[in-house]
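Hey, I was hoping to borrow your eyes for a little while. I've been staring at a protein lately and its backbone has me curious. You're getting the sequence in one-letter code plus the fold written as tokens. Would you mind checking whether the tokens look sensible for this chain? Here's the protein in full, and shout if anything looks odd to you:
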Amino acid sequence: MSSQNNAVITFVDIWKERTGKLPDELVFDSRFTTYPFMEQLNERGILFLTLRKRFPRLLEEISQQPPEAWKKVSLSNIGHQYRTPYVLEARVRIKAYEGELSQLAVRGLGHIKPTILLTNYTQTGSAALIDRYARRMLVENAIEEFINFFHMDALSAAVPLNIDVDLQLTLIGSALYRMLANRLPPPYAKNKARMLFRNFVDVPTRIKITPDQIIVRRKRRTHNSLLREAGYVGSQGSIPWMDNREFVLDYL
């Protein structure tokens, strides 16, 4: 547990060792540090943004605030349904932390209880800070996909070389699914890899390799028309590492 609490400081030390300077800002989960370590970040001049634990007493204090104390903000790095939440801003003092911190309680992000952020930012508006934290959630969603679909938490062996290969293959696979999605029309362009696999990849297929071509013929499916619209049917160009064989996608 002590090493987990110190994880943020350890990251900062490694970052400085590798880059020769401290990071400008950090956005992290509150489980990776404690308030004294946040004080160390502040002393080093590092801006930070993190979640605050929703203690019952804290939630009660927030619930007692009048409706007019909450202000509506407009976000951009979040789904359309949650782009206009309400924010309650306050300056707070935390035990074991010198000075004040900004606290943002946010309602309307899809949770029953408000999301509570703590930060030492002083010159940035609340909407920009919530957007900044939302980008961290996008990274978490990508990691979740790596684990749930690509099984990155079940690497093939404890041998470091095999783990490195597995990680690289996971990143390549994720990038290929994103490339597939980016050429598809909405709403499929935002589908996760699991959905793309089910609708577009998991199809009975015949592959024929000739000296000049690699011909992939897929069984006809409902979503094939979307692949045709995206330009995936027909010649897809040559593959250099396959003796420049032409890659052709067609239907059975």
